[in-house]
From TrEMBL:
InterPro entries: GntR_C, TF_FadR/GntR_C, Tscrpt_reg_HTH_GntR, WH-like_DNA-bd_sf, WH_DNA-bd_sf. Residues 21-88 form the HTH gntR-type domain. Keywords: DNA-binding, Transcription, Transcription regulation. Residues 1-21 are annotated as: Disordered. SMART domains: FCD, HTH_GNTR. The lineage of its organism: Bacteria, Pseudomonadati, Pseudomonadota, Alphaproteobacteria, Hyphomicrobiales. This is GntR family transcriptional regulator.
Length: 232
């Protein structure tokens, strides 16, 4: 009897192809990015012909995309009037920032004791990338999210990580709004460096205090900019 033929990579079943996003999904993704980065500012009117030209799709996908983003709280639909970017309301955001201050400062203190050498190396690489992405808002936002999430994960508290995962995305637009303040990016980079230094030194109290000041400063700038008016 002939020996069985060795398995070949060609024998593996083909991986299912991921379907291409629809025009509505593409339009929603592009519009979501513009809103989260405040390239379309709070309260800005979303004129459909302008969006058609900007996003490169027809009116139907644009209208469906606006409905999707309305469900996410990013767009406000108005009867017989153009939609607008949902305004940022400090009354809604401040309690979320207070939660973030509590969660992330607590996690920074725990992470000073529990973070691994590999995680510290990764955080240092993220810090270097943040420095390089100083003027790239897309990259800076992504890397900032990674840094905060890594510190929360390093605290080794799944319950806190879950609560943080629910609250953090809701603050991304407000955080980016604060980052647009003059000098805030450089200030934020210095705060991130101080957090990394405290974690490397395994100084829990210092890590907790620096993280608390970092998030509270973002909150204060967000409130100040919204009080002054729609500065972009």
């Amino acid at each position: 009897m002939a020996a069985p033929r060795p398995a070949s990579p060609d024998d593996a079943p083909p991986r299912p192809q991921r379907p291409e996003p629809s025009l509505t999904e593409q339009a929603a993704a592009a519009l979501r990015r513009l809103i989260l980065l405040n390239l379309l500012g709070p309260g800005e009117v979303l004129n459909e012909p302008d969006l058609v030209a900007r996003l490169g799709v027809s009116r139907t996908p644009v209208r469906e995309a606006l409905k999707l983003l309305a469900g996410e709280g990013l767009v406000t639909l108005r009867r017989n009037r153009a939609a607008l970017v949902t305004p940022l309301d400090p009354a809604d955001l401040v309690p979320l920032f207070e939660l973030e201050v509590a969660l992330e400062s607590f996690c920074a203190g725990l992470a000073a004791e529990r973070i691994t050498a590999a995680e510290l190396d990764r955080l240092a690489r993220i810090q270097d990338a943040l420095e390089a992405a100083h003027d790239d808002r897309d990259a800076y936002t992504r890397l900032n999210r990674q840094a905060h999430r890594l510190i929360v994960t390093a605290a080794r508290s799944p319950a806190i990580a879950e609560a943080h995962g629910r609250a953090f995305p809701r603050l991304e637009r407000a955080r980016n709004f604060a980052l647009a303040a003059d000098g805030r990016v450089a200030e934020s980079l210095a705060e991130h460096r101080a957090i990394l230094d405290a974690l490397r030194a395994r100084e829990g109290d210092r890590a907790r205090a620096v993280m608390q000041a970092h998030v509270a400063r973002t909150q204060a700038l967000m409130v100040a900019r919204l009080t002054e008016g729609p500065v972009r």
